[in-house]
UniProtKB/TrEMBL annotation:
SMART domains: HATPase_c, HisKA, PAS, REC. Keywords: Coiled coil, Kinase, Phosphoprotein, Transferase, Two-component regulatory system. Residues 161-234 form the PAS domain. It comes from Desulfoscipio gibsoniae DSM 7213. This is Stage 0 sporulation protein A homolog.
Length: 508
């Protein structure tokens, strides 16, 4: 039992000495100096005490019957619970060998009898402080170990979640990029490489997003980027824009953007909607053609009837003697009526709903048959025609329609060029399509006009009717073909793509 049990937080010292006078003296000194003391008059008793409760420090006599101090000390040091309790030997044996023995047994200090009370107190104080320090270090050590273990766990969890996100990032259907605040693209997925034509190494941390947008859209997109970081609610999360790939092709895209929480980075996923947009345009165009068809059916007949009457009378009067000197005027009037009639005929063929005479034909052969007519046109205006025809599959075509299509595209091309220009007509196979291309060296079509191409009566020419291309689109639609236009300051190419196995559309 410790003396001074009332003060439990005071350091506890186990004093072991077989000489009662020493034991009492030490007990008195220590109790008077603020320690709780447990005296034991033998090593065995000391061991029994410690089985119940451990002290903070042990003052241990060396020479004792039965179990001497060294033995007690060795037992303590062998036990995990007590190995760190400081042991100070107190002994009358004052030679080096004994002291070495003491330290070897695990003691931290060695005091020789007779001792000074101050010396004992000072050493106890020192060793208790050292022990406290050691304990603090041990605790810190445990904390650090726990922290390391926790960090490792977190790292593992982070790695796992990063792998998860990377999988999502890579396998999400659309092209995705992570964009830094300064507009650098720091990470892209395979989808982005596919749409852009660049490799990851060429983009990651090297390219800014401005390189992928057409100039007209850039100001808007950069404004969104800035504003998203300041006032995210004022910016749409999804918007349409135009994307430029490595080859300079422009694609319509739908962008979905979101800030990555807690960062200034955004993640943008891009969907290519070029085909969808093209289809939308085609639908609008077809709607217009349908409307024109309905109008044409209604009025063409009504106009032609009176025109036939007028033409008949003009011809009749032209042959009369009294109008002989006006014959030229009659001819002019008849010519003008014929021109009006031919416009109506063309107008009606725009509105025509199906190709009447479908047979297996080869494009090359149709082009070659038309060549003299086309050459004549070109020579008249001092321009050149080049043919580059490759072997292509036969297609189900209405020959009259296809002649119209070729003539209209070729005439437009010739009209777009200054004298000396070359016009190239090509046929080739691309995947499962036969393509007819007509390329000129004109000045190209402006952005504003390209939207109107194919609209009936849209023309920029003084004598144009603006029905040529409307007719081409109508013929293409009837053959389930698609018209693509590539245009720039060095010229325009019209590409008409026919599906080799595509069925002909009889209902357009
Ligand atoms: N190859 C081309 N290069 C430049 N502009 C073109 C080309 N083809 C067509 N265009 C533009 O498209 C417009 C419409 O062409 P479209 O063939 O429908 O009518 P048009 O040639 O004006 O008259 P027409 O009915 O006599 O053919 C043209 O007026 C022209 O501005
Ligand atoms: Mg034309």
């Amino acid at each position: 039992m410790y003396y001074d049990l009332g003060k439990k937080d005071l350091p506890r010292i186990l004093v072991v000495d077989d000489v009662l006078a020493n034991l009492n003296l030490l007990t008195d000194i220590l109790t008077n100096h603020g320690y709780q003391v447990r005296p034991a008059n033998s090593g065995k008793l000391a061991m029994r005490f410690m089985a119940v409760e451990l002290p903070d420090l042990i003052l241990l006599d060396v020479k004792m019957p039965e179990m001497n101090g060294y033995e007690v000390c060795r037992h303590l040091k062998a036990d995990e619970r007590s190995r760190n309790i400081p042991v100070i030997f107190i002994s009358a044996l004052d030679n080096v060998t004994d002291k070495v023995h003491g330290f070897n047994a695990g003691g931290v200090d060695y005091i020789t009898k007779p001792f000074q009370a101050e010396e004992v107190l000072a050493r106890i104080k020192t060793h208790l402080s050292l022990r406290r320090l050691q304990r603090q270090l041990e605790e810190r050590n445990i904390q650090l170990r726990q922290e390391i273990a926790w960090r490792k766990q977190m790292e593992k969890a982070l790695q796992e979640s990063e792998e998860k996100y990377r999988t999502v990032f890579e396998t999400t259907g659309s092209a995705t990029a992570i964009i830094e605040e300064d507009t650098t693209i720091s990470l892209v997925n395979e989808g982005f490489c596919k749409i852009s034509g660049y490799s990851k190494e060429e983009i990651n941390d090297k390219k800014k997003f401005r390189e992928f947008f057409v100039d007209d859209d850039l100001i808007r997109v950069e404004k969104y980027h800035r504003l998203r970081r300041v006032a995210p609610n004022q910016v749409p999360n999804s918007y349409e824009s135009r994307f430029i790939d490595r080859q300079g092709n422009i694609r319509n895209i739908l962008i979905n953007v979101a800030l990555i929480p807690g960062t200034k980075k955004s993640v943008a996923s891009i969907t290519d909607i070029t085909d969808f947009k093209q289809m939308e345009k085609e639908i609008v165009r077809l709607d217009r053609l349908k409307l024109i068809g309905e109008m044409a059916a209604g009025i063409a007949h009504e106009i032609r009837n009176p025109m036939t009457t007028v033409r008949g009378f003009l011809q009749y009067y032209k042959s009369k003697k009294e109008f002989e000197q006006n014959r030229e005027h009659f001819d002019l009037m008849i010519e003008e009526l014929d021109r009006a009639n031919s416009i109506i005929t063309e107008y009606l063929s725009v509105a025509k709903s199906k190709s009447a005479d479908l047979k297996l034909h080869n494009f090359n052969q149709i082009v070659e048959t038309l060549l003299p007519l086309i050459q004549a046109d070109a020579i008249n205006s001092n321009k050149y025609i080049q043919l580059e025809l490759s072997e292509i599959a036969d297609l189900l075509l209405d020959e009259k329609d296809i002649r119209q299509l070729i003539i209209n595209l070729v005439r437009n091309g010739l009209e777009a060029m200054s004298p000396g220009g070359h016009l190239t007509i090509r046929t080739f196979t691309d995947d499962d399509e036969v393509v007819l291309s007509v390329q000129d060296q004109g000045l190209g079509i402006s952005n504003a006009n390209i939207e109107k191409i194919g609209t009936p009566f849209f023309t920029t020419k003084d004598n144009g009717t603006g029905l040529g291309l409307a007719l081409c689109y109508s013929i293409a639609a009837r053959h389930n073909a698609i018209i693509n236009i590539q245009t720039g300051p060095n010229g325009t190419t019209f590409l008409v793509r026919f599906k080799i196995n595509g069925s002909v559309n009889l209902f357009v």
